[in-house]
From TrEMBL:
It is found in: Periplasm. The keyword Signal applies. The lineage of its organism: Bacteria, Pseudomonadati, Pseudomonadota, Alphaproteobacteria, Rhodobacterales. Residues 1-21 form the signal peptide. This is Neu5Ac-binding protein.
Amino acid sequence: MTLLKSAFFGALLLSTSGAFAQEVTLRFQHFVSPASANPKHFMQPWADKVEADSRGRIKVELYPFMQLGGGAAEMYDLIADGAVDGGWVIPGYQPGRFPEAEALELPFMVTKSGEEASMAAWDFTQEHLMDDFADVHLLAAHMHGPGIVHKTGPGIQAVSDFEGLNLRGPSRAATLFLDKLGANPIGMPVPAFPEALSKGVLDGGVITYEMSPSLKLDELTDSHTDVAGEKSLYNLFFIWAMNKDSYAALPDDLKAVIDANSGAMASAWAGRAHDTGDKEGRQVLVDAGNELAEISAETTAQMVALGDEVIAEWIADVTAKGLDGAGLVASARAKVAANRLPAN
């Protein structure tokens, strides 16, 4: 009898431990170098933490450079359709599809802290964008650090210096502003930026310091210009998202692991990753001997006034399409103001 009981409980224990040791592999995809800031300081540490928190039961595999197929502009649909289990999305790569998110990307909307901007982005997303992203399971919403003008030749000193420049822009809001400044904006996902520079298609473009090393902007451009003050020339909105069926298929305890690594915490973490990368990327440009410039406060004020024109025109445009443009801008500004970090 004792032997029978021992065999029974042994089988029960084996069955229970086998269920507990269920392994799940999630394939996440992105479109940049694994050495760039977000993959290095957020995505990989996030994947490692999920694995550790699940005691090895969840493995997150990261695929850079769209290795699983598709283009950067297709990422949202690749996740929604289940071609990948999750990944990194720039909604602005599909102009007009997610218009409410553009409120955060308007000129001089957010501060130069990626962490602050990302905390504001998560709050704004919770209030305004959850319906827009209903096709995916949202893990984080975040923004990068300050957008910088990288170009061949000397840095920008006056608004007139933008006149006629062919500049890459990442989003509709950014290209609207570049157009207002007198440049010829060319909408372009980040993977195409270096080749366009090397072929002379572009005079430069707007992107962060942190992307400079992986895009070889220290070699392909000569100057890197920021605006004066605490607000960013432009910014870009991202989501870190998962396929809904992939999430739903997880047992409850593993859903809890994903949940614990999602939301405001993950959004702020992603923003900090960009801040860390900005410091590293800026130093690469300094070491290369490139020009790092800052537009004067007077010229920045002129640019802010032009940015206000873009904002007014954006409000009129989206309002005509049935959205509360003024309300979205007011809400974005309120979220930014409410998510300032204590001064060091």
